[in-house]
């Protein structure tokens, strides 16, 4: 039981994916705020009913630690205890000291002695319909010690719709398995933005779970007049734990075939969560200036990237990237400079 608690604590605290998530920019020009939703299974099996492991108080402690770790006061916290219906209650607060204290008090004092089955599909659909919105990055942590034994077919249907919903609403889901009984009989691997995290035992590296996003959603812009054959620095935003990537984390960058530039290299993350790539142009600078358009960037080049195979092991095993490709855009405009003369 101690191993379950420790493993789960590591998962949730570092999953403060306030989650690599989509770096969408709002109309006001700032990054979206984050909403963290905890779908919390409070069926009596969590308390050891009918021979199940009694992990209820340990899950409460882990949720509290996870909420306490949120540092951005603009983050909205939603906690939804559930059993066999859409929800038992719905609590919402912002991550201010007062808001966190209020929602933690509700978690610690909550009591439900109803004997029910476990319905996962209904609470999940409720979150999709009534909690997620396109103006925020939504991270949902579904915590359960069992499978859906009310309407498992409906759960499949909801998950089959997840990709479309997740892309539309910028949502990311984590199916956190508290016991072996929570393992589903079908794979989640093909469902985008939804991942299964096994917390039924303490796994090496689970404390290193992080979700990271590059600031590349709009593509990488290279000015061929000013940045020809110069390295390009790429930065990443981390939404978890201490906000850092484990030292030595490496990514492989590679361009798809094109006529102008090639990238095929392994880059290592710096301490400031940035790295450098070194584009190699296939034509001279003069030829590019003469050939590429000047009124808009040439954007038909695709840059793909992923962690190297070694990053699936050890302390790197639970570091996730959310995007895997972007446009590499070539700009053919003189760089504006300002000259200041002092008499």
Walk me through what this model shows.
The protein has 343 residues and is α/β, with parallel strands linked by helices. It is built from 7 helices and 17 strands. The chain has helices spanning 2-14, 56-68, 97-109, 121-130, 152-160, 162-169, 285-291; strands spanning 33-41, 76-82, 91-94, 136-144, 171-177, 194-198, 210-214, 220-223, 232-238, 250-255, 261-262, 264-268, 274-277, 280-281, 298-307, 319-321, 325-331. The strands form 4 sheets. It has a 6-stranded mixed sheet, with helices on both faces. Strands 8-17-15-10-12 form a 5-stranded mixed sheet, with no helix packed on it. Strands 13-9-7-16 form a 4-stranded mixed sheet, with no helix packed on it. α2 (56-68) links the parallel β1 (33-41) and β2. The longest helix has 13 residues, at 2-14. It is elongated and about 75 Å long.
Distance between the termini: 76 Å
- How many helices? 7
The description of the largest β-sheet is: 6 strands, mixed
Backbone CA Rg: 23 Å
Query: What percent of the residues sit in helical stretches (DSSP H or I)?
Result: 10-25%
Strand order within the widest beta sheet:
3-2-1-4-5-6
Q: How do the helices and strands line up, and which of them pair or pack?
A:
Layout: H1 2-14, E1 33-41, H2 56-68, E2 76-82, E3 91-94, H3 97-109, H4 121-130, E4 136-144, H5 152-160, H6 162-169, E5 171-177, E6 194-198, E7 210-214, E8 220-223, E9 232-238, E10 250-255, E11 261-262, E12 264-268, E13 274-277, E14 280-281, H7 285-291, E15 298-307, E16 319-321, E17 325-331
Parallel strand pairs: 1-2, 1-4, 4-5, 5-6, 7-16, 8-17
Antiparallel strand pairs: 2-3, 7-9, 9-13, 10-12, 10-15, 11-14, 15-17
Helix pairs in contact: 1-2, 2-3, 4-5
